[in-house]
Amino acid sequence: MDKGDHISVTLSGASVNGTEEDSLTTKQPQRRSLRRSWNQLPRCQRNLIILAVLALCLTLVLVLYNDQIDAENNRVIGNNGGAFLFRENREVANSAGIVQNGLSDGMNALDAGNLNNNLKNPLPNIGPPPLSFSNDNAPVFKDVKVIDTPNLNKKSDDNLQHAGERPKESLLQGPLVEFPNKISIQENNDNRIDEPAVEAQSGGGDDDNRAAVEAAILNPRVVPGTNNVLITDYINNMEAKLVAQKQHFHGATNERQTAVVAAFRHSWNGYKKYAWGHDNLKPLSQSSHDWFGLGLTIVDSLDTMYIMGLEDEFTEGREWVSNFLTFDINRDVNLFEVTIRILGGLLSAYHLSGDKMFLSKSIELGNRMLPCFLSPSGIPYSDVNLASMSAHSPKWSPDSSTSEVTTIQLEFRDLSRSTNISIYEKVTHAVNKKVHALEKTSGLVPIFINANTGTFRNYATISLGARGDSYYEYLLKQWLQTGRKTDDFLIVDYMRAIDGVLTKLLRRTPKEQHVYIGELINGKDFKPKMDHLTCYLPGTLLLGHKFGMPTSHLLLARDLLETCYQTYMRQPTQLAPEISYFALTTNEEQEIYVKPNDAHNLLRPEFVESLYYFYALTGNRTYQDMGWNIFQAFEKHTKVAYGYTSIGNVKHIFNTRLRDMMESFWLGETLKYFYLLFSDNRKEIDLDKWVINSEAHLVPLRNH
Ligand SMILES: *[C@@H]1O[C@H](CO)[C@@H](O)[C@H](O)[C@H]1NC(C)=O
Ligand SMILES: *[C@@H]1O[C@H](CO)[C@@H](O)[C@H](O)[C@H]1NC(C)=O
């Protein structure tokens, strides 16, 4: 183990080649400068470094036993990769990525045999979704009682042990839940899932899409599929019944909500003063940071301000969008990030305010992102230049992230449904179909997919954290968005995936029985590591359960929520780290621990999001109290004179290492979820009418 740690240091030093120091001093989540430094190195020097790294890896591979290597390798990647796992995860673009690839290439040769067996494991048989989905929601409070049944407490699992069949291969210390969909399986004569009809993979459909995209991108200011009708003319002539109805909110009604609004205004005022029109505020240096050049913080904040009743601020933001937001910007942006933040933000602002200006902007942005879908496979390229309208894979890899290509559909579909322009939904639903057709491991997906071949990267990690997370989220949410059809392949994939989570990724710590979701490195080696990003899952699971998903989802949701809460409360700051590790054996000192490189907190929303769903769907105010503890921790440790900042270390209250960055999701997501969590009206947002995207933006549910 010592050896492994030593190796990791050597590797990162060699590969990063001096730039690591920069990253430590600047403490930025974005890795652009690293990549630039890397790119600026002469080619031969770069090649030399890569060769050296590869040689080291080969040596490693030869010297150590297969299993040992796996274990150590996981740590190496953990240490290097940890610092780079940001939600803006394309920014992994740096030499750590290369180290990782180099290592795993070495590993792949060795482990190919094992892995193939693993991949060929038949999918567990689960039944079709319950046929009795009614369009009325299951009664909320009745469901909730199940959560709070004392029997289900993790410390009294005996009851469950008899009730539920324990999956044989599961390494859980105690059974968490009954085997998913047991009833469906028993009721079904043949255990195979009836594959819902999915249109043919190739042929006319794809070619039609391609031709339509090629035509659409000739001029992004006209409406695709029309004879050069300008977007503004089209919008102005839209039938009145198609236009969104203005929604009404009343503003804060209690002290906690008032405190959240104050935190929002403090953040907004700092941003306005020092970073207006730029993507992010750097509150310590009183400067700004640009990533896409799209005024990210403004667009991400619009619906939050609308919901909080901050009319003046909303109007300021609206005026900026109307007068200054332009997409004719000559730089590469990330399709996924721009979709969930900017397109999602604009659509949400449109649906809440009924202001058609936001819809016009959305159409132009949609058009400018269409080039991503001109890849040979239809799996979108990750990056696009919105001015030149050319798209490509990330510079550092041929692959797109799986979660990225599967986390654009809610927004593109909503754009199509809101405008009656079909192209956006068509191209992104084609991605759904492609990914559905690919072979998976118990419904779980590798985190990389190739836009040229349309296939997963072999031996890529399986994770519900960075690069994997929202694939699962959008399976459920798309099904909700489109009227919860029982023959929808997305919901079948979702159920299968959660089943895979239960059998392949779920563990309990040996002493305190904390339930967590680990990762499969190279698609097979379990690693007891959970990103904070994964803490969105309890909320999503509970949402699914409200709409008919099995009890197993509810139980997992409850246990995971508790673990996520512990990742906050066990830190002296009461703020969670980016990544937590869990004990595998009773010999380990701590059941939940944090590695030094993973101890940062970027003001992320995922756990608060889950608390919001728990409160909204159960009405239990305990979740508000949990959220209030965390809100106060943010106030205490991240608030600075001109905003709130990411911190580098949650493990010490006197050494939090302020990072000088206020991410747009702090305003767009974290504060919005806090505000809704503390509402006296848990249905302030009606989850029977709205679905909330991966960046906390609202789009309406449709009936088909
Ligand atoms: C939507 O577009 C189709 C043609 O593509 C048209 O037939 C239909 O009437 C339109 N619907 C609305 C509500 O404008
Ligand atoms: C509310 O939730 C907490 C935490 O899950 C639980 O301990 C408590 O029993 C619940 N209260 C009610 C009234 O259901």
Automatic annotation (TrEMBL):
Instruction: Tell me what reaction this enzyme catalyses.
Output: N(4)-(alpha-D-Man-(1->2)-alpha-D-Man-(1->2)-alpha-D-Man-(1->3)-[alpha-D-Man-(1->3)-[alpha-D-Man-(1->2)-alpha-D-Man-(1->6)]-alpha-D-Man-(1->6)]-beta-D-Man-(1->4)-beta-D-GlcNAc-(1->4)-beta-D-GlcNAc)-L-asparaginyl-[protein] (N-glucan mannose isomer 8A1,2,3B1,3) + 3 H2O = N(4)-(alpha-D-Man-(1->3)-[alpha-D-Man-(1->3)-[alpha-D-Man-(1->6)]-alpha-D-Man-(1->6)]-beta-D-Man-(1->4)-beta-D-GlcNAc-(1->4)-beta-D-GlcNAc)-L-asparaginyl-[protein] (N-glucan mannose isomer 5A1,2) + 3 beta-D-mannose; N(4)-(alpha-D-Man-(1->2)-alpha-D-Man-(1->2)-alpha-D-Man-(1->3)-[alpha-D-Man-(1->2)-alpha-D-Man-(1->3)-[alpha-D-Man-(1->2)-alpha-D-Man-(1->6)]-alpha-D-Man-(1->6)]-beta-D-Man-(1->4)-beta-D-GlcNAc-(1->4)-beta-D-GlcNAc)-L-asparaginyl-[protein] (N-glucan mannose isomer 9A1,2,3B1,2,3) + 4 H2O = N(4)-(alpha-D-Man-(1->3)-[alpha-D-Man-(1->3)-[alpha-D-Man-(1->6)]-alpha-D-Man-(1->6)]-beta-D-Man-(1->4)-beta-D-GlcNAc-(1->4)-beta-D-GlcNAc)-L-asparaginyl-[protein] (N-glucan mannose isomer 5A1,2) + 4 beta-D-mannose
The superkingdom listed in its UniProt entry is: Eukaryota
The alphabetized UniProt keywords are: Calcium, Disulfide bond, Glycosidase, Hydrolase, Membrane, Metal-binding, Transmembrane, Transmembrane helix
Keyword Ligase tagged: no
Q: Which cofactor does it need?
A: Ca(2+)
Question: Tell me, what's a Pfam family for it?
Answer: Glyco_hydro_47
EC nos: 3.2.1.-
Query: What transmembrane ranges does the database entry give?
Result: 48-65
Q: In which pathway does it act?
A: Protein modification; protein glycosylation
Q: State the family named in the UniProt similarity comment for this chain.
A: Belongs to the glycosyl hydrolase 47 family.
Name the UniProt record assigns to this protein: alpha-1,2-Mannosidase
Q: What is the protein's species of origin?
A: Bactrocera dorsalis
Classification of source organism? Eukaryota, Metazoa, Ecdysozoa, Arthropoda, Hexapoda
- In the UniProt record, what gene is named as encoding this protein? LOC105229826
